[in-house]
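[Q] Does anyone have a clean structure-token version of this?
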Amino acid sequence: MLSAGLLAVSIGAALVAPTIIQAAGLGSVRQSASALAETLPAPAPGTASGADALGGSGEGSGKISTDLVDGPVDGVAFEIIVPSLGYRATVLEGTDLAILDRAPGHYLTTAWPGHTGNVGIAAHNTYWIALGNLKPGDSLQIQTRHGLFAYEIRDIKVVNPDDRTVLAATNDHRLTLTTCYPLWAGAWATQRLIFTALEVGGVA
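[A] Here you go.
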């Protein structure tokens, strides 16, 4: 009976361990993204943040129609698509702990797709492990109510967790994805992986 009991405990530990490891990883990325969001400056003049876009303000790229208002609907911002990976996910508005537990999040102080500026999206590294296969030249897409916006990855780099320059406002049409690195490290990730892409097309 003692042997049987020990065997049951061992099996139970084996089943629970992956869940504990994954949860630890989510905590690491969650805190990193939230901390970065809290220290971001307000958007520069001429750019549109998620909050600004709710009122339709900001300079557009010429592809934004005036009969639809930019901004999240019931907390949903837009959809991100990575064609080469067969990946697509709903992006929620914001990067607080509760949001990043559920899905990728749009940094509130960054631009809205289709407007001049830097669109920032954060996600847990455990959700974006497959993105480690991306390389410069690969395509990313953002689907909004206005249409589909296409981006091309131009740069992939690893930075320190306190590097806030990657989400600074810009004068181009940029998409920046952030997550903790190494992707497989979960709670032990010590740096941040950054994907920078530029818009190459869109349909209003």
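[Q] Thanks! Anything notable?
[A] Strands lie at 76-82, 87-93, 105-106, 117-122, 139-144, 147-159, 173-181, 191-202.
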